Each structure stands twice: as C-alpha cells, then as structure tokens.
Amino acid sequence: MSRTSPIRQLSSHMDKNCINHGEHGELVAALLVMQARDALVKDSNQRWVYVCEFLETLLGASVLTATTKPSMAYSGEAERSLTDTFKDARMWFNHVIKIRKSHLINVQHLWKFITRGAMVLCANNQPGVDIILPVCYSGNVLSRRTVTAILIQVKNDTTFGRDIHGYLFDAMDPFKVNLFSKKDKPLPIIRMVFALASKGAVKYVLPPRTTRQSKHPGKYTSYDIRCAKISRKTFPIIRGDEITPYQQLLNRTRFPGQEYAVGKIHEVEYPSDVEEGKIGLLRSFDALVEGGEHRKRKGKSRQKGKKRAGGSTAA
Questions:
Q1: pLDDT tens, 255-303?
Q2: Confidence of residue 149 (pLDDT cuts 50, 70, 90)
Q3: Is 221 in the same domain as 296?
Q4: Does some domain include residue 29?
Q5: Total structural domains in the chain?
Q6: Are 54 and 193 in the same domain?
Q7: Cross-strand bridge partners of residue 228
Q8: Which secondary-structure segment (H or E) carries 192?
Q9: Residue 172 in domain
Q10: How many Cβ atoms are within 10 Å of 183's Cβ, its own excluded?
Q11: What count of other Cβ atoms lies within 10 Å of the Cβ of residue 78?
C-alpha cells in the first residue's frame, strides 16, 4: 500500500479525465472530511466516529463544542451545547457516493447510506448543500426516526471570504433541502460552510439567531460553523506538506481550461497552434472570451452590417 497521502496522489494525477474535480471544490472538502474520519478510526480502531470528536479532529479543539450554543433552536433547546446535544451521535462512512436524485437526502432514505458506510455527494444543481454526512443520532437501531445529518456547503470563490454570509446557512434549511418532511419532528443538525478560496484563515461558530434575520425561527435546531481558507489554521487535520497539493486541486476548479492543455496531459510537445485550440486535436470555443481571428471576423461583420443598414448599430 502506498504511503503517499491521498491529496498528493490526486494532485499528481489531476489531469486524468477519470477524475472529477467538482464544481465548487467538493473533492477537496470530501478529502478533508475523510482525513478527519481516517485519523479517528486509526486511533480508536472502531468503525463508528462520534460527531464531536470528528469536529475537533477536523477543526481543532478551538471549536469548543462544550460551550457552543445553537444558532437556531427548536423549542426548549436554545441552551443546550453542541456536546450535550450530540453526545451520543455517531457516523460510519469510509467512501463517497454521488447521488443523482435529490429526494434521496431525505431521512426516509438517508439511514441506508449509513448501512453502506458512505458520505453523500449531492446531485448536480442541488440547492443549498453539496455534501451530507448521515448521522445516527441515538440508539443502536437505524431508522428514519434516528437519523439526522451534517450539511456542508462548499464555496471556492474569492467572493466568499472571512465575513459571514448568513444566506448560505439559510439555504441549508433542512425542510427546504428536503432532509426532513413537514410532518417530521426534526432532530438537531449541524450546518457547515467551507469558504475554501478565502484569503483569510478563520473558523467560527455562528451566534444565536437573535443577531441575524430568519424567516422560520424555531422550526429546527442547528449549530452553524463557518470555515474559511484551505490552511492548517482552519483545518489542523492538514499536514504541512499537503497545503500545496490542496491548493493545486482548488485552482483546477477556480481556473478551468487546463483540461484543454493537451501537451501537458499527454506529456508530448505539440505545435503552439494546437495548444491554443486553433488547429487539430482539441478545440475550445467560448464566444464571450474568444480572441484573435474570431474577434477580427466579428469586427468585419459588424462593419458590413453598418454599410448595409446605411447607419450605425449599437454594440
């Protein structure tokens, strides 16, 4: 078995077309989650991972789960700490499953992913949430009544920095994303936003909702955690030599187009015209960003149009 870390392996093979880098850095987020899980399993030699231990491994002891209060609380739960609320909550996963139908994230089906040992990568265009970690909230019997979740939304855009964007958490309303049905009495949840492209490293738990607006206060209990920047300060689970590989994967999502660099992918020298997509092999065309001959032809067409019309045209 290779001793090389998964992130270093991926970063060295990220030009392979069999790897899906995700739209918003989901692959990087899933790796962070899996590394935290692997570290706990290695130390305890057990399948189950307790939620609070998982958070402290992923984010460090500074999360202070013992004193963290919910940002939004169901009746009678406003003063319960995260540790008290999730003291018996456990997770079991060792791989990722990408679903194609959004209705599968409902608790009616979510417990099945625990029996499979999988975290859930949400379907394309799923509103509000990108990754779901199914949680057995209590007891030893899995059912729709004993399952809740950690909901993770991933952002790899510099627009989302150190500041709180409350609407990102609002979008993870468990009723809106169909985690719970209207007839359910919802179990507590944890919502996390990974702002991976932030220039400043910070992690914090959002305060109670008395300081923020909400359309549906008190419908469920949620502990909200924001994590900004891919760094060891935010995610202590990252080793010092892994920062660069993580950043390389994020850059592939943030700056698309390298998939057309055929010379780099196949390690063969091609004429520059091929690399630029002018001739042969792979051609990339985007009417909004295409330059060179395309723009010249477009300019000539406009001039001809003006002559035919006998006047000017607005751009």
A1: 544 444 444 434 444 444 444 444 433 343 443 333 444 444 545 555 5
A2: very high
A3: no
A4: yes
A5: 2
A6: yes
A7: 195, 202
A8: strand 189-195
A9: yes
A10: 5
A11: 15
**Within this chain, do residues 190 and 241 fall inside the same structural domain, yes or no?**
yes
Distance in angstroms (rounded) separating the CA atoms of residues 167 and 159: 14
Positions of E strands within 196-310: 202-205, 222-228
Nearest of 83, 182, 168, 186 to residue 127 by alpha carbon = 168
Q: Tell me how long the chain is.
A: 315
Indicate whether 115 and 210 sit together in one domain.
yes
HEC letters along 225-253? EEEECCCCCCCCCCCHHHHHHHHHHHHHH
- 34-48 pLDDT, tens digit per residue, is 999 999 998 777 889
- Tokens for 221, please give them: 């209990």
Cα separation, 293 vs 54, in Å, equals: 55
- pLDDT-derived band at 137, boundaries 50, 70, 90: very high
pTM of the predicted model as reported, rounded to 2 decimal places:
0.75
CA 145 to CA 244: how far, in whole Å?
42
Please identify which residue in the block is written with the tokens 């390690």: 267
Residue 191 maps to a domain: yes
Q: Which domain holds residue 291?
A: 266-309
Mean pLDDT for all residues in the chain: 77
- Report the DSSP beta bridge partners of residue 152: 131, 192
**Distance (Å, rounded) from C-alpha 235 to C-alpha 140?**
31
